[in-house]
Amino acid sequence: MAANKQNGKRFSYYIYNTMVDIFDRLKKAEGDLGQYRSKSDGYFMFPILEGEIGPHMKFNGKEVLNWSLNNYLGLANHPEVRKADAEAAAQFGMAAPMGARMMSGQTKWHIELEHRLAAFVKRPAAYLVNFGYQAMLSIIDSLVCRKDVIVYDSEAHACIMDGLRLHMGKRFVYQHNNMESLRKQLEHATTLAEEQGGGILVITEGVFGMAGDLGHLKDIVALKKDFKFRLMIDDAHGFGTMGPTGAGTDEHYGVQKDVDVYFATFAKAMAGIGGFVASEKYIVDNLRYNMRSQIFAKSLPMPMVIGAMKRLELIQTRPELREKLWSIAHALQKGLREEGFNLGNTESAVTPVYLNGSVPEGTNVVVDLRENYGIFCSIVVYPVVPKGVLMLRVIPTAAHTMEDVQRTIAAFKEVKDKLDAGKYQSEEMQNMKLSKD
Ligand SMILES: Cc1ncc(COP(=O)(O)O)c(C=O)c1O
Question: Residue 342 gets which letter from DSSP?
């Protein structure tokens, strides 16, 4: 029993022993995704794909036609990339350089790659980052202060959402790609920023990685006439794939000058690890000295840096890779649309195939595609898409062939017919997979 004094009166209360062991709680509360672990581990989630990265890999001991990698340009297994990676690993090892860039991890190659990246995306300066996700948290954290207001697209990637959590000031969300909604939020943000003596940062994506639609950069930039704000884009899926030279979605729209901070990861078209942020030199210098996820983390290893230079060189000198990606993406999207599939508003290589069905039906679709058609792609279900909707997320790459495209369209057509006929309603197929657990 504990005692306390309030308004001059003594009162007592009991402290009940409500403490729990954290580990006991975690046994039951597995989390949003973890709740599906027992049914999905190793199959729907954490599947093991074996073999060399590319369209033809092995899953569960069987050959599958793989549409689930963001290896857009097919660079992951490009012979010149493999050679550059191997030579850099042989020359430098995987450890070098040791320490954070600021302390002991700086090299002339890191700096050289930054110059090349900055020139490619037509910005005065660029800075390498270790992982895109972590970097985005710190970019947001470094760019704004408590008085500033962030306005962001409702479908922004998790790294942006998590970066927003670090922001001590206000943030306003606008409906996905809805310019009327953005205008309204900018009005609110302007009032607040004026009151507080702060500024406004708008954040969106170049290519939205789930649905494949583009951030409406031209329209957003046009709002700069009416509002005062800085614009940052996460172009993870646009870098290397969009624009006449592959420099990104802002190049595609012709608005590079008006996108104040450009960010991309090496995890997609570059088929590597790391990423970069590009902007005015004084902004990049500011970020170099303030991004905590980079200051307090080890520098990108040399093979990643040398390997990234080779990848960048191929993006710049082999437009045929991007042309091949687009010919595969267009053939796939055209063929699926002709067969009556709904692909939403994609304008990028990302090809979402929307179907109507329940989550159990969706799992049966995936099992059938993998086990009987030898086709491997990811599935997205409620709550990422509305209830009753299933999305097969198909990622074409320059390494796919037209034969792969035809085979996939034919398989999807059969699967859709079965789905519409209610053939996936039985639990038999799920059990087939579950019995392997
Ligand atoms: C839009 C977007 N931003 C950021 C990231 C994170 O990049 P990284 O894998 O380099 O951490 C991803 C996924 O990789 C992404 O799709």
Answer: B
Query: How far is 437 from 59, CA to CA, in rounded Å?
Result: 15
Picking from 256, 260, 305, the residue whose alpha carbon sits closest to that of residue 281 is: 260
pLDDT tens by residue, 144-187: 999 999 999 999 999 999 999 999 999 999 999 999 999 999 99
What does the buried/exposed string (b/e) look like for 328-365 if buried means 16 or more CB atoms within 10 Å of the residue's CB? Answer: bbebbbebbeeeebebbebbbbbbbbbbebbeebbbbb
CA 340, chain centre distance (Å): 28
Three-class SS state of 375: strand
Per-residue pLDDT tens digits for 191-241: 999 999 999 999 999 999 999 999 999 999 999 999 999 999 999 999 999
Between the two ends of the chain, the Cα-to-Cα distance in Å is 50
Euclidean distance between CA atoms 271 and 337, whole angstroms: 29
pLDDT given for residue 18 in this prediction: 84
Across the strands, what pairs with 394? 351
CA distance 340 to 356: 13
163's tokens: 């970066």
- Report how far residue 104's alpha carbon sits from residue 101's, in angstroms, rounded to the nearest whole number: 6
Q: Which of 137, 265, 276, 294 is the pocket-test mutation for ligand 1 (most atoms within 8 Å of CB)?
A: 265
Q: Cis before residue 79, ω within 30 degrees of 0? A: no
pLDDT digits (tens, 9 = 90+) for 366-388: 999 999 999 999 999 888 899 99
Q: Ligand 1: which residues within 6 Å by Cβ?
A: 131-133, 157, 159, 205, 209, 234, 236, 265, 267, 275
**Ligand 1 centre distance from Cα of residue 226 (Å):** 31
pLDDT classification of 436: cutoffs 50, 70, 90 = very low
> What confidence tier does 274 reach under pLDDT thresholds 50, 70, 90?
very high
User: Which domains are assigned to the chain?
Assistant: 32-66+320-429 (3.90.1150.10), 79-317 (3.40.640.10)
Distances, alpha carbon 146 to alpha carbons 1, 70, 143, 213, 376, in Å: 42, 36, 11, 32, 46
pTM of the model: 0.94
- Separation between Cα atoms, residue 381 and residue 296, nearest integer Å: 37
